[in-house]
Design a protein that fits this description.
- The protein is α/β, with parallel strands linked by helices.
- The protein folds into 2 domains: 144 residues, 3-Layer(aba) Sandwich (Rossmann fold); 222 residues, Glycerate kinase, domain 2 (Alpha-Beta Complex).
- It contains 15 helices and 13 strands.
- Strand 3 and strand 4 form a beta hairpin.
- Helix 9 packs parallel to helix 10 and helix 11 crosses helix 13.
């Protein structure tokens, strides 16, 4: 029997690499003759860079940058020396997990730190990038990133305005002439776990703004600020980007890349699956185990476990999904190939306690699923 373990990270407790190894150990606890292949996965969110770097035999590098509210810190990005490919996870610079709930400030938050990581990679020789667009605390349509890379914004009197939504509320002119030529000429593959457009009811502000601190009473106002900035970007670049799927990812960073660089956007899980040659690795598997911290109705919208299960199904391989929690709507994922969705936590323990015991909980769940599979195989005379 051959099982491919291809989980995403279990947010707050395990990276995808750690989760895959936990799964492998649990399987071998049941039967150490089972062949197990670990293929850690990501969908563009936190941990995706490390997953890709591991698959591509690259290295993680560090760089000074700032978080979403301007505090200096050290961020990391992936670099593949053989191909000069950089893998930048925007959450490393301006991740929402770096801020407390009290620190969230959507009107002042800026993607400046993303530009700093990109500049560091450009200085290292990178001219091709994979940008992982998940987990941002910003809603500035990429203004901060563009400012760090040479763009300049002014009000009606010609005075510079800050590269955040407060500044953009007064913006009248966008100057892109001094954008770093290396950035403009580089190729960017944008890996996104959402396909939202930039504006409106399905846009960055309405859908994701509230979790970044946007008050419901200010959603329309902030959306209008981004719409005006988008007008100016489209006028300068002659590119229509507001209705492009994924332009609203990471608070509009998707739109900034699409407007100003050679960028293409893809579903993040597809980028990762292609990069790690998943189809070839799963072709002769009997089962695929995947999972992440939460599985619910949103999982089908491009999250890693569903993408893994889809790819496995295309090869005729059945999947079992494991979730730290399994919520409403998860039942829609079940079909002939996704045969079970297994919660790893079965009680109402506090979140902090559940995170501390996440490895043990995942191991127990995978062990139980493996026992059922082995027993079923034995009764049917297969192996």
């Amino acid at each position: 029997m051959r099982i491919v373990c291809a989980p995403d990270s279990f947010k707050g407790s395990m990276s995808s690499i750690e989760a895959a190894n936990v799964m492998k150990h649990a399987i071998h606890t049941v039967d150490d003759s089972i062949e197990v292949m670990c293929v850690p996965i990501g969908d563009g969110g936190e941990g995706t860079a490390a997953t890709l770097v591991s698959a591509l035999k690259g290295e993680m590098r560090s760089a000074r940058c700032v978080d979403a509210i301007g505090r200096p810190h050290i961020g990391h990005y992936g670099f593949i020396p053989a191909t000069k490919l950089a893998i930048v996870e925007i959450a490393e610079a301006v991740g929402i997990d770096q801020l407390s709930e009290q620190e969230l400030d959507p009107w002042k938050a800026s993607s400046l730190g993303v530009g700093m990581l990109i500049r560091h990679a450009l200085d290292a020789g990178a001219r091709e990038f994979i940008i992982c667009l998940g987990g941002s605390a910003t809603n500035d349509c990429g203004a901060g990133m563009l400012a760090e890379l040479g763009a300049w914004f002014s009000d009606a009197d010609g005075h510079e305005v800050a590269a955040n939504p407060t500044g953009l509320s007064r913006i009248c002119h966008v100057y892109l002439e001094n954008l770093d030529a290396r950035f403009v000429a580089s190729k960017f593959l944008l890996a996104s776990d959402v396909n939202n457009v930039l504006l409106g009811a399905d846009g960055a502000t309405a859908v994701f703004g509230p979790q970044k601190g946007v008050k419901l009473s200010e959603v329309g106002k902030l959306d209008s600020v981004l719409a005006h900035f988008c007008d100016l970007l489209e006028e300068q670049t002659q590119r229509r980007i507001r209705k492009t799927a994924g332009a609203g990812a990471a608070g509009g960073l998707g739109a900034a890349f699409l407007a100003t660089s050679e960028a293409q956007i893809q579903r993040g899980i597809d980028v990762v699956l292609d990069t790690v040659s998943f189809n070839a690795k799963v072709a002769d598997a009997d089962w695929v185990f995947s999972g992440e911290g939460k599985i619910d109705g949103q999982t089908a919208s491009g999250k890693a476990p569903f993408g893994v299960a889809q790819a496995a199904a295309a090869q005729g391989v059945k999947s079992v999904l494991f979730g730290g929690s399994v919520g409403r709507g998860s039942e829609q994922l079940l079909n002939d190939h996704v045969v079970a969705i297994v919660p790893t936590v079965h009680d109402s323990r506090p979140l902090e306690e559940a995170l501390m015991e996440a490895r043990e909980s995942l191991e127990r769940a995978v062990e139980m699923a493996t026992r059922l599979i082995v027993a079923s195989s034995a009764s049917s005379g297969t192996r």
